[in-house]
Design goal:
heterodimer; A: alpha+beta; 5-stranded mixed beta sheet; 5-stranded antiparallel beta sheet; 14 helices; about 40% helix; globular; B: mainly beta; about 5% helix
């Protein structure tokens, strides 16, 4: 097999820069929900030593000194640019596996007569020109090696101009390169595992590649054995073209400020149900259970703590926002306690089954809202989420997320298009 | 650039799609038109030939992935039919030719101008008789963000 992994460089920051060219060359950081921690950093921010996940309040001083621009996550923008990037890249191979918002695998079997380095450069050029986004390309025989090649391309450890093809390396060069890479750079080797491996004297990628796979399987897991085989060019991970349907759908968020009363809490829960139910319908599933939870802030030890979750089984599996909302609010009524400062609520849709095969309920007299839901999804698709919503969602939104530094909906809102002179 | 027309929904034969290098652009849809006038009043045999509604997306957008909308502020391009408040359809996949109307980035700001290659550099022309033109010398920084394909103007 020959596989390419294409990965966006500092993807969220790059998306912001496409529509605000003033950010080019400046240190930019994108913050997580509620403007919490750094989830994307430009090269300039990395150079200042800011680590992934650094809380915003801890880098404020540094930000003032170096003029770091901090932005709230603009997920509508990143999702749109991600979809465009995946479509552009799909022009380069009939086999594509979208792995995350900013990376995908492309199958390159049958491209043997192409110069793969040049083919990788063509991908880079096209994504850069069509979308303005920089990407790196790693090419190798297995997914694990392609991931590693991509890392080497991005860090300019091997390859040229953001493209690295391990097929170009002699065995000697490859061993030399792998000896310089720490074992935790390998896909699937997390911090704890890499500490354990280092303890056994397996500190570099090369040491892991040449380790005895059978022993590692005994000592650790079959997964690690497969990783070792993949590092040796034996493909053990299948290509998954279609992302499998989710087995559960979760929607949860921290509030921008503490919520005390049941009413705003109920509005939040209803709107999370609306988001989750829309996802449920788009993947053609029905939910058999609704789970809901609420909690106070566990990091504020001096204030009274409360958290509780409840799972509500439905008499008949459903994808109807109104039915799911009723179930969730029934649950909220049971678990809500007065006198607490709630910081977070969430819902999960569980026990999913394919729509079209619901188990019939003999005693059900529920209205069939299939057409209403289809209309609602269309309207919200055109005019934005929440345009048509259940009354339970309310309009107060005092619980809403804090996103004070969010850039405009450059590609998703008519009233927020980039202005040009 | 080499382009193939592929009917909507038809599978793309891999050999055809990847015969070019780099691969050819594939337009997203054909735009079917009804060939002749249709008599009203009874179920028309012509309905067999109606394939789709006309869609402005299909008319205005050639490369969906690379097409973005921007809003015009100001009157520097009225001579090119581009007015304050107009909506511009910008295609990033096109190579700007001499005299293309482009969206450029000069000193970190977006500007719509006509691209003119002149002997000692590039002139970004506005329609104001020399007023508002920008000369870009060899050492100056300027990026072409995309090529303006349409201006949508409310009458």
């Amino acid at each position: 097999m020959t596989i390419a992994l294409i990965d966006g460089n500092n993807f969220y920051v790059s998306c912001e820069r496409v529509f605000d060219p003033k950010l080019e060359g400046r240190p930019v950081v994108v913050l997580s929900n509620n403007d919490g921690c750094a989830v994307a950093r430009s090269a300039e921010v990395k150079a200042l030593g800011v680590k992934m996940g650094t809380p915003w309040f801890k880098m404020r001083d540094l930000a003032g000194k170096h003029g770091i621009v901090a932005l709230s996550s603009n997920y509508a923008l990143y999702a749109d640019m991600s979809n465009r990037m995946m479509e552009v890249l799909s022009q380069f191979s009939p086999d594509q596996e979208i792995y995350s918002i900013d990376e995908c695998f492309l199958g390159l079997d049958g491209f043997a007569n192409h110069d793969l380095m040049e083919y990788g450069q063509a991908m880079r050029r096209r994504v850069k020109q069509w979308l303005g986004l920089p990407v790196s390309v790693g090419i190798a025989k297995t997914k694990t090696l392609a991931k590693l090649a991509n890392h080497c391309a991005k860090k300019a450890l091997a390859g040229t101009d953001g493209v690295c093809d391990f097929g170009r390396l002699s065995e000697l060069d490859r061993s030399a390169l792998f000896s310089t890479l720490a074992v935790n750079e390998v896909w699937g080797v997390g911090r704890r595992l890499s500490e354990q491996l280092t303890g056994l004297g397996i500190a570099s990628v090369e040491a892991l590649r040449t380790a005895d796979a059978k022993t590692l399987r005994r000592e650790f897991s079959v997964v690690l054995e497969r990783t070792v085989m993949e590092l040796n060019g034996i493909s053990c991970m299948a290509f998954e073209e279609a992302t499998p349907n989710k087995q559960q759908i979760i929607s949860s968020r921290s509030f921008g400020s503490y919520v005390h009363d049941r009413e705003p809490l109920a509005e939040a829960v209803a709107s999370y149900i609306a988001i989750a139910a829309e996802k449920l319908r788009s993947q053609g599933s029905l939910a058999g259970m609704v789970q809901i939870y609420i909690r106070t802030n566990p990091h504020k030890a001096d204030s009274p703590q409360y958290q509780r979750a409840l799972t509500i089984p439905l008499s008949q599996a459903s994808d109807d926002t109104l039915r799911l909302t009723r179930a969730a609010l029934w649950g909220l009524k049971r678990i809500y306690r007065e006198g607490f400062a709630y910081q977070k609520a969430g819902v999960a849709l569980l026990n999913l089954s394919a729509a079209g095969t619901p188990q019939l309920d003999l005693f059900s007299n529920a209205r069939d809202n299939t057409r209403l839901m289809a209309v609602m999804d269309r309207i919200n698709g055109i005019w934005g989420r929440g345009t048509l919503r259940s009354a339970a969602e309310g309009s107060g939104r005092e619980w809403k997320m804090k996103r004070e530094r969010m850039s405009p909906g450059y590609t998703s809102r008519w009233d927020q298009l980039p202005l040009v002179r | 650039m080499n382009r193939h027309h592929v009917p909507d929904g038809a599978a793309l034969p891999a050999a055809r799609l990847f015969s070019g290098f780099p691969p050819p652009c594939v337009p997203l849809r054909n735009c079917p038109l009804l060939a002749g006038p249709v008599p009203a009043g009874f179920p028309s045999p012509a309905t067999d030939y109606v394939e789709d509604h006309l869609s402005l997306d299909e008319h205005l957008i050639e490369h969906r992935e690379a097409t973005f909308f921007v809003r015009v502020a100001g009157n520097s391009m009225t001579g090119f039919g581009i007015h304050d408040g107009d909506l511009l359809v910008v295609d990033r996949s096109l190579k700007p030719a001499d005299r293309s109307v482009v969206l450029a980035v000069v000193d970190g700001a977006f500007t719509v101008k006509q691209l003119c290659r002149i002997p000692d550099g590039i002139l970004l022309r506005s329609s104001g008789q020399g007023h508002g033109d920008i000369f870009v010398g060899a050492e100056q920084e300027m990026t072409i963000w995309g090529v303006v394909r349409w201006s949508i103007h409310a009458v």
